[in-house]
Write a structure and sequence with these properties.
308 residues, mainly alpha, MetI-like fold, 72% helix
């Protein structure tokens, strides 16, 4: 008679059982604060809810359900396409400038020998500053009447623009403030990718007579592409969610020059009490972000180098 062997649990199963009690709070938080609001938002986007009526009231669905009308109204409105263009205009200016500034910060910190920790803290201070405080400070500094920026330009005989009050300059001003605040964070990410490059590559290049500029273009930049790719993904998603600096510095003005997607979502939901319309707007934004992220993920195969 063959003895039956009790099937043993693998190390992976035992680890999962051990970790389950510790994972449960996070999973509950994910369900309650992420997945459930997503489902409710999708439901609201199919209604004309004003944000005031009780969602659980009897007959709510029959009274307020309008199907895909919110989506049709948004996609057929000229305002949506103007707001989308403003958002992409911000992205087109912000990402290249932010990437160049962050690369500059990373390169300078990698070359710094003394006081590198102090310089890292200095570059990171804007990241720790809240957007509310930073936006109010920059709004004051960019004032055409008494702002510090135009006063400094006047010393050199330059007539400063109206900045936030000028349709042509309002969005570039927002971009510059965003780059100032974000370059410390992304610069440290790029720095970690830069210092992780094997020094043997540089030693071999030096033996071949390569200069500093050649080393940067032929070694540093190609081997930093995973970090650069991460920065591009995160910065693109952040750029689509542009909101606090717009609300505080321009409120979408002047004449709608800085109206962007999240700013419109907020105003439709909490100023105009068109919560269903705002929810549909947010789902369209979500779809756009997913498409752009998927394009980036697919495109990484052509240029990201994962060799150590």
């Amino acid at each position: 008679m063959l003895a039956t062997r009790k099937r043993r649990k693998g190390p992976g199963q035992e680890g999962l059982i051990t970790a389950s009690p510790f994972l449960l709070p996070s999973l509950i938080g994910l369900l309650v604060f992420s997945l459930l609001p997503l489902i409710i938002s999708a439901f609201i986007s199919l209604t004309d809810w004003n944000g005031l009526d009780q969602l659980t009231a009897p007959g709510f669905f029959q009274e307020h359900f309008i199907g895909l009308e919110n989506y049709k109204a948004i996609l057929s409105s000229s305002e949506f396409w103007g707001v989308l263009w403003n958002t992409f205009r911000y992205i087109i200016m912000y990402i290249p400038l932010m990437l160049m500034a962050s690369l500059g910060v990373a390169y300078l910190l990698s070359r710094q020998r003394r006081g590198v920790t102090a310089f890292r803290i200095i570059y990171y201070i804007p990241v720790l500053t809240s957007w509310v405080a930073a936006s109010m400070i920059w709004k004051s500094m960019l004032s055409p009447e008494y702002g510090a920026v135009n006063n400094i330009l006047a010393i050199f005989g330059i007539q400063g623009p109206g900045w936030l009050l000028d349709e042509a300059w309002a969005m570039p001003a927002i971009v510059l403030v965003s780059v100032w605040k974000d370059m410390g964070f992304f610069g440290l990410i790029l720095l970690s990718g830069m210092v992780g490059i094997n020094k043997a590559y540089y030693e071999a290049a030096s033996l071949d007579g390569a200069g500093s500029w050649q080393k940067f273009w032929k070694i540093t930049l190609p081997l930093m592409t995973p970090a650069i790719f991460y920065v591009l993904i995160v910065s693109l998603i952040n750029a689509f969610q542009l909101f606090p600096q717009i609300m505080i510095m321009t409120d979408g003005g002047p004449n709608g020059a800085t109206q962007v997607m999240v700013e419109r979502i907020y105003k439709y939901g909490f100023r105009y009490y068109r919560m269903g319309y705002a929810a549909a707007f947010s789902w369209i934004l979500f779809a756009i972000i997913m498409v752009c992220t998927a394009i980036q993920m697919k495109g990484q195969e052509r240029w990201v180098n994962y060799d150590s």
